Amino acid sequence: MRLVVAGEWLGREGLCNLKIKNISVAEDIEALEGFSGFVLLSYSLSSKLLNLNLKKKGILPPVVMVELEDWEPRPLDQLNPRPYKLNLKDVSLGPEDYKRAVLKVKEHIEAGDIYQLNLTSRFTFEGEGEHQKLFLHFYRAQPVPYAFFLDTGDFCLISGSMELFLEKRDKLLVSKPIKGTARNREELASSRKDRAENLMITDMVRNDIGRVAETGSVRVRELFKIEGFRTLYQMHSRVECRSCASSVEILRATFPPASVTGAPKRKAVEIIDGLEPHAREYYCGCGGFLFPNGDFRLSVLIRTAVAKGSRIDYYAGCGIVWDSSPEGELEELLLKVKAFYKRVKEEL
Q1: Phi-psi region for residue 99, left (φ > 0), alpha (ψ -120 to 50) or beta?
Q2: Which domains does the chain have, with CATH numbers?
Q3: Could you tell me if 55 and 44 are in contact, meaning their C-beta atoms sit under 8 angstroms apart?
Q4: Rounded to the nearest 5°, which phi and psi values hold at 261?
Q5: How far apart are CA 237 and CA 7, in angstroms?
Q6: What residues act catalytically?
Q7: DSSP string, 113-130
Q8: Are 285 and 43 within 8 A, CB to CB?
Q9: pTM
Q10: Three-class secondary structure assignment of 16-52
């Protein structure tokens, strides 16, 4: 069992080890009441929380709770990781299938069923090497604030997420949804499509956290802010409020994350279940720390892979709106895979 996290999770630099005391699993978020440590919440919890009969269910436990020996991180020497080889074996929605699915999403938008939907694909690889080495290569290709590697002994989770789902410090609750991706800053800044997409999701987050907020305290502090990473640029907004609710109450009101579902959320999740042939598992769920004082910090599990044996499943997705083009969304999808597997475009 091993947990390696980007230092920014805990106000440090570089990568850090945290010593694991015990790992337990549960079926629903109520198990988190009073827990402190590192947690994973599977996207599959959407079925229960949104009262939907989703036909596809993951095979991994919905809730993973990692009890820590202590909260003092130890620096990890992550220079010169040994080679790790990936061989692309399968894609759940190949290029033509993905473009056709984008058109189906647009049909739902035209019919008034939804305004926006996050459509994802799963890339399955055969891996050769230690999974932690894969994480180190991934992190070195694109350092991000919410990266982590968790080896539970049964499976490994490798996350290169840069998206903050929720953070609570005392009564301040913050969410920073990401919507909008491009190869360069100018392209993203001038994109009306990405701004519209971001605005829709920001409004959803306002509505979600408003359920647990003190009356009149919800504010949008940043809108359409652009942040650069090594392989792409992302647009995010920042929504905050004051709340006295517990972590479980807040998760019950906001999960699954708005940025990886669509608007309206419940209908989007239902349509996603019909369009995507794969189970999302932990991808598009959330992970992070519940602190002993009741505060917490959770990322959206985007840019995330699940490793079990030699099989590696990496996921990526795009937000589809009315003016999305199938070709443009496919290009964005492959851009989001680039840091994990740079040859994906040539091999599909």
Answers
A1: alpha
A2: 2-168+249-347 (3.60.120.10)
A3: no
A4: -120, -85
A5: 23
A6: 163, 179
A7: S-SEEEEEEEEEEEEES-
A8: yes
A9: 0.96
A10: EEECEEEEEEECCHHHHCCCCEEEEECHHHHHHHCCC
**CB of 288 closer than 8 Å to CB of 298:** yes
Q: What is the DSSP letter of 81?
A: P
- The gap from C-alpha 2 to its chain's centroid, in whole angstroms, comes to 21
Kindly state the greatest CA–CA separation across the chain.
54
Q: Cα 44 vs. chain centroid, distance in angstroms?
A: 13
pLDDT digits (tens, 9 = 90+) for 243-289: 999 999 999 999 999 999 999 999 999 999 999 999 999 999 999 99
Distance between CA atoms of residues 5 and 176, nearest Å? 20
pLDDT at 55: 76
Angstrom distance (rounded) from CA 183 to CA 194: 13
Which helix (H) or strand (E) segment holds residue 338: the answer is none
Report the 10 Å Cβ neighbour count for 300.
29
The encoded tokens of residue 143 equal: 């350092």
